Amino acid sequence: MAKRFMQLAEVAEVLDISSAQAYALVRSGDLPAIKVGGRGQWRVETSALEDYIQRMYADTRSFVAAHPLGGAGEE
Questions:
Q1: Which domain holds residue 11?
Q2: What percent of the chain has pLDDT over 70?
Q3: In sequence order, what are the beta bridge partners of 34?
Q4: Of 5, 12, 24, 41, which one has the greatest count of Cβ atoms within 10 A?
Q5: How does DSSP classify residue 22?
Q6: What's the CATH code of the domain at 43?
C-alpha cells in the first residue's frame, strides 16, 4: 500500500526545492496540507502533491502560450 501522507522534507525532495520553499508553499495555501501530532508537524497528501504538480504544468503551458518567445521569470 502506498503512503498517503508525506513529510515536508519528502515534498521538497520530490519537487527538488528546499524545505523552506516547501513550507512556504504550504503556508501560502498553494499546496494543501494538514498539521498532525502534538508538535504540529505538516503532512501533505500524495494526491494533493500530484494535483499541485499538474496545476503547475497547466500554469506553465498557459504562460508559454501567452509568452511564446520568452518572458519575465525565466531562468
A1: 5-66
A2: 92
A3: 43
A4: 12
A5: H
A6: 1.10.1660
Task: Give SS3 for 35.
Answer: strand
Query: Total structural domains in the chain?
Result: 1
Chain length of the chain: 75
What is the dihedral angle through the alpha carbons of 27, 24, 35, 33, rounded to the nearest 10 degrees? 80
Report the distance separating Cα 64 and Cα 71, nearest Å.
Answer: 8
* pLDDT tens by residue, 13-38: 999 999 999 999 999 999 999 999 99
In the numeric block, which cell numbers belong to residue 6? 508525506
| Residue entry with cell 496540507 | 33
Side-chain half-sphere exposure of 30, counting CA atoms within 13 A: 12
